[in-house]
């Protein structure tokens, strides 16, 4: 499997067989040179525990490419059944004795019938690589000219034939046909009149398609790499093997559903890998999914935000995949590649209709409303912003007191670990679209809730929030050394303003390509949540701020007008 991925195993790096004793490993390492690969291979193979882990990994990777028997114990039927025994289930009971009186063989009507058949329900469509049957020891001539059929129809004759018809089988012999079909049902049939079908065992061997095998193997390599990172060990060769396996799968696979399943296998829930490790490859998967005809033909949704493809995104749409892909490239530091992807996305059409409506390379959120004005930053003295800014700054001391109560009361909870490239961040949410104002938390942070309740411009439109946090009031705390990767809020309906509470020294916000620093007790800037933004805190103390997300006035005006006209 490693060779298929274009990468050597640790044994191959050192020129060893898997059963090489420790002394031979040390000798081989001494003559292998000073390469990083040789040093890594020696580190793993010289330690018995780590070598055992690696051997187990190689075995699991190998097993992923092997065919699996998927018929045993599954429901089976046949065209008729001999009175007194010969039920269809006998062929998948695991007992392959060729003698009928051992209770292991099926039997159709002994007087014979036209085109008798036997069928097993695999439960779900399977990729079938081979079907094997065992003939009876007595009356062996009955099974001559048998056919195997696989497909999604319960009618065996409606499904295609696997390979060539099976030949004549001698007493107790196994026969097999190679098959490159997929389906829920596998069947054995005989053609002709007055035929009797009797089978002592049927095995259906399922083999994953080559791209899926590569993805499964890639996942195994990446999981072992991440587990090593969790233990403080960095095995770069495993990361390279994982990437190479997923590269092969991406090259070979065209089906968007299969590609999404492969994309999910690259998950890193603990955030153990750097953005550069896999983000560029993930972005390529997302772009290929979004560009597939099956995904594109549904980009004009029958209902708002109905999910069609790109299930890992907010909207389940091609735009969702493309937006996520651009953000992944930016998070990996590949800004030129992100801009090229933006240009490709802007040129993507279906039936002469543009798929994305983005107005600039920075405004690449999933739900982009073209009639909403955009900017990286908005002036704090804008007529629709100034009243909220003024009220927030006048209450800075009260907010700081409420923050202290929440901090000492243990109300903060961790947020999205995968977003943090380093460090950690926590949040206490006082208001969002799902819960409204939290009675429990507002009892603690009463000054903050009392001052802001009713001041959010879209609060009266809460039922029309696209996301629960289209408007949000929260205290956010970043530990010293925290770096939040570039990300956006998914929609240009929301603007953000922050009021630093404490520890802002050394904290920096980048929105698009513009960097800003916070000022204590002051709302220094208001920025668009649609634009990828990044936070780096290089200070020595926790950085706490009040974060307020509020609905863009253009969205407020449009929704209010629609409500008045009863068009919603």
Pick out its properties:
single chain; 16 helices; elongated; alpha+beta; six-stranded antiparallel β-sheet; eight-stranded antiparallel β-sheet; 568 residues; 21% strand
Give a written overview of the molecule.
- The structure is a single chain.
- The longest helix has 21 residues, at 210-230.
- 32% of the residues lie in helices and 21% in strands.
- Residues 302-306 have low confidence and may be disordered.
- The protein is elongated, with a radius of gyration of 31 Å.
- It is built from 16 helices and 21 strands.
- Helix 3 (36-46) packs across helix 4 (48-63) and helix 10 runs antiparallel to helix 11.
- It is α+β, with helices and mostly antiparallel strands.
- Strands 9, 10, 12, 13, 14, 16, 19 and 21 form an eight-stranded antiparallel β-sheet that branches.
- The chain has helices at residues 10-14, 22-30, 36-46, 48-63, 210-230, 236-252, 256-264, 275-290, 293-296, 318-331, 335-346, 386-394, 396-408, 439-444, 446-452, 553-564; strands spanning 68-69, 76-78, 117-134, 147-151, 174-189, 201-206, 349-350, 353-354, 377-378, 413-414, 420-422, 425-432, 436-437, 472-478, 483-487, 494-502, 507-511, 514-517, 526-528, 533-537, 543-551.
Structural class: alpha+beta
Tell the overall outline.
Answer: elongated
Round the mean pLDDT to the nearest integer and report it.
90
- Unreliable parts: 302-306
What distance lies between the first and last C-alpha atoms, to the nearest angstrom? 56 Å
Tally of individual helices: 16
Give the biggest sheet.
8 strands, antiparallel
Helix proportion range: 25-40%
Strand content: 15-25%
> How much is the radius of gyration in Å?
31 Å
List how many beta strands DSSP finds: 21
């Amino acid at each position: 499997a490693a060779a298929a991925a274009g990468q050597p195993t640790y044994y191959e790096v050192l020129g060893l067989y898997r059963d090489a004793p420790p002394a031979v490993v040390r000798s081989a390492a001494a003559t292998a040179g000073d390469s990083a690969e040789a040093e890594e291979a020696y580190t793993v193979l010289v330690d018995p525990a780590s070598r055992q882990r690696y051997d187990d990994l190689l075995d699991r990777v190998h097993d992923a490419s092997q065919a699996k028997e998927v018929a045993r114990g599954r429901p089976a039927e046949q065209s008729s059944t001999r009175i007194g025994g010969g039920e269809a289930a006998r062929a998948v009971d695991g007992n392959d004795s060729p003698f009928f009186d051992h209770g292991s063989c099926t039997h159709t009507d002994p007087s014979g019938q036209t085109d008798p058949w036997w069928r097993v329900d695999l439960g779900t469509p399977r990729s079938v690589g081979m079907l094997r049957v065992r003939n009876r020891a007595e009356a062996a001539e009955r099974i001559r000219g048998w056919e195997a059929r696989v497909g999604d129809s319960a009618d065996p004759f409606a499904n295609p034939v696997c390979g060539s018809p099976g030949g004549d089988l001698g007493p107790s012999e196994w026969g097999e046909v190679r098959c490159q079909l997929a389906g829920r049902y596998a069947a054995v049939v005989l053609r002709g009149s007055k035929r009797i079908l009797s089978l002592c065992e049927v095995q259906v061997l399922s083999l994953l398609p080559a791209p899926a095998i590569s993805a499964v193997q890639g996942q195994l390599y990446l999981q072992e790499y991440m587990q090593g990172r969790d233990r403080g060990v960095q095995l770069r060769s495993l990361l390279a093997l994982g990437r190479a396996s997923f590269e092969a799968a991406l090259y070979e696979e065209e089906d968007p559903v299969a590609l999404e399943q492969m994309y999910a296998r690259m998950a890193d829930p603990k955030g153990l890998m750097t953005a550069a490790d896999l983000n560029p490859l993930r972005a390529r998967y997302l772009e290929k999914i979004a560009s597939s005809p099956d995904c594109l033909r549904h980009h004009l949704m029958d209902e708002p935000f109905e999910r069609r493809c790109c299930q890992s995104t907010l909207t389940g749409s091609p735009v969702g995949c493309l937006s996520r892909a651009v953000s992944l490239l930016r998070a990996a530091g590949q800004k030129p590649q992100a801009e090229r992807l933006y240009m490709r996305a802007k040129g993507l059409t279906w039936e002469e209709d543009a798929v994305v409506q983005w107005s600039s390379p920075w405004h690449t959120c999933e739900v982009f409303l073209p009639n909403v004005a955009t900017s990286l930053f908005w002036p704090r003295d804008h007529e629709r912003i100034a009243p909220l800014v003024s009220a927030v700054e006048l209450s800075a001391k009260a907010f700081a007191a409420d923050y202290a109560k929440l901090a000492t009361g243990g109300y903060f909870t961790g947020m999205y670990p995968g977003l943090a490239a380093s460090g950690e961040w926590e949040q206490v949410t006082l208001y969002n679209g799902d819960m409204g104002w939290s009675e429990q938390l507002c009892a603690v942070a009463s000054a903050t809730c009392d001052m802001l309740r009713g001041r959010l411009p879209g609060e009266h439109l809460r039922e029309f929030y696209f996301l629960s946090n289209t408007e949000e009031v929260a205290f956010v705390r970043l530990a010293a050394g925290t770096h939040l990767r570039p990300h956006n809020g998914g929609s240009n309906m929301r603007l953000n303003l922050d009021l630093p509470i404490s520890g802002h020294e050394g904290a920096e916000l980048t929105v698009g390509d513009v960097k800003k620093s916070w000022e204590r007790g002051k709302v220094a800037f208001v920025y668009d949540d649609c634009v990828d933004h990044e936070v780096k805190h290089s200070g020595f103390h926790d950085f706490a701020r009040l974060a307020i997300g509020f609905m863009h006035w253009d969205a407020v005006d449009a929704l209010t007008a629609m409500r008045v006209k009863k068009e919603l």
